[in-house]
Structure formats: structure tokens, C-alpha cells
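Much of what follows relies on a compact textual record of a protein's fold. An example makes this concrete, so a full record is given next.
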Amino acid sequence: MESAIDVVYTWVDGSNPGFQSRLQACLQEFSSSPSPSSISPQRFRDNGELRFSLRSVEAFAPWFRKVHIVTSGERPQWLDTSHDRVSVITHDVIFPDKSDLPTFNSNAIELHLHRIPNLSKKFLYFNDDIFLGRPASVNDFIKADRGQYVYFHNWPLHSDAKDGPVHDRAYAHTQSLVDRLWGHRYSRLLPAHAPQLYDRELLASLERIAPQEFRETSSHRFRSPNDLVLRVFYSFFLLDSPGQMGKHETKVLKDLRACKFVGLDDHVGRMRRAFWEIRIVRPKFFCINDDLGDAPLDHRTLTCLRSFLRSYFPHPSCFERRTDVG
């Protein structure tokens, strides 16, 4: 098995004055209006998830080597940046073309994660709204023969590039590239909202396979329908490309014990039931996606979320300042 596996996060604090200033300046310079969902407040809102996702990793995957947190320049106030197992990486470190910055497009940022300095060959990528709910081992991601498991929801992958929300259209756009490169053999499922295992060297090879698509997405400062979505492209590269086909194994996360996805909404009772279900079932992976638009931080659903996370992950991680362990 791999001797070193790092954990990578992307993180943003939309309330930071510096971030807000860069966002407004970029919007004023933008030649056309980006999709409303690309600049919705929930896209950049920090509900404190990173702190608790880190707690989940330390509690349930203590075998990781190091954590890299990719940001536009902001740092969580509670983070102990002096810890020797954490590094904060700014976008300018990993974007080879600095004219692409500032960026507010997670699809663009993810395409450059393999450029993080001193990154392990294989690494686990977490969005900050993804958590481990119980112990996970290296064997949950890497097969005994050194292939990997590729996780999917039991949901069809959106296939209409001309219709739907911007992220769905980007899924379809990416699938069309997969079809052109490796053929369309079956009805594809959506790669799961779960920790994603990547191989740094394979990511670099993908950039050589589709340099124009990488370059175009990198230049998109906001999410666009013709973005290349890394988790879709990488998953089907592993499963469909001639050099990788047969080495890796698909796992569809149908069982609640395996994965739970929660989209936050205004129905507090429904949210409480969803959090209660996570507490009782303790899925291996769960994702809590913020769909609350411009809701204030004291919105009842967000208050309920923070209370749930504090109770599920009550113990501070080693990455938190000792004077700030909320």
C-alpha cells in the first residue's frame, strides 16, 4: 500500500473583506454576466465546515500524512498554521498562468491541485462540506492490486449540455469529452460526493491528453457550462481509457451506511431529521451541501447545522489553535 497519502482541501471565506473586494472588482471587469448560481452567496459561504471535516479526518483516518488547504489567500482564524502537518497553499502557487487569477471557479482550481508543492503521489481530495462519519482505511480507496475504487451515486450523470444548472451542464460537457476520447459504452452515473482519491502523475497525464480543455477551464473565473469537471473526467479516465481500463473498480453508494447526501434548505424539521439519521446510521461518508442562497449566518438551518457538527465531532483536531476550539 501507499506509504504516504495527503489530504487536500479547497476553502473560501466569502465574508472576508479582501475576498469580497476581489470578487466585486472581477465582476465589474467581466465582459458578460456569470451564471447566478456561480456567484450565489452559498457558493462562498463559510459555515465552519472545514474545522469539523478536519476533525473527522483526524478521528477516522489518522493514517494520512499531511493536510494541504488551498485558498485565494485567506486563512481560517482558528487554524494553527505553525503545525508541521498542515500547509496553506494560495492559488498563485499552483496556477501556472497568473492571468487566470483571481478565480472564483472551483472547477478551475481543482485542475491544478497536482501542482501543490511536496504533495504525495496519491492524495485524498475533500470539499470542505464532506466528512467521514466512521473509521475509514486506506483499503476503502486503494485495492490490494494497487488499483483504486471509484465511487458513484446511484444517480444518472447529466447528459444535456444545453439545459439545466451550470454545474449539470458542465457535467454533460465533460462527459461529451470522455465520449470523444474513449467512446460511449454505457449510461454513466454521477461520481459521488465523497473523498476522491487522485494520483498526481495521472492528473498531469490528463492535462497532456486534453490541454485545450484544461487551459480553457483554467481561464474561466466563474463556473461555466463548458468547464471540465475533474472528478467526472478522472473517474471515467480510470474506467474507460485503454491504459487504465480493468485496473480499477466501481462502487455505487446505494446504502445509507456508505454515504449520505444532504442539501440544506429552509425546512428546519427536515434538516433535523436528516442530521438525526446521520447520527444514528453513521455513514462512512456524508456531504452537507449548502443550497440556502443568501441566507444569513444565523438562519435556523445553518444554526442547526453547526450544532450538529459540534456534537458529532466534539474533539478539536491538532490543527486548531488551543485558544480557539469552538
In short: The domain at 5-312 is CATH 3.90.550.10 (Spore Coat Polysaccharide Biosynthesis Protein SpsA; Chain A). The chain has one domain: 5-312. Residues 159 and 299 are 35 Å apart (CA to CA).
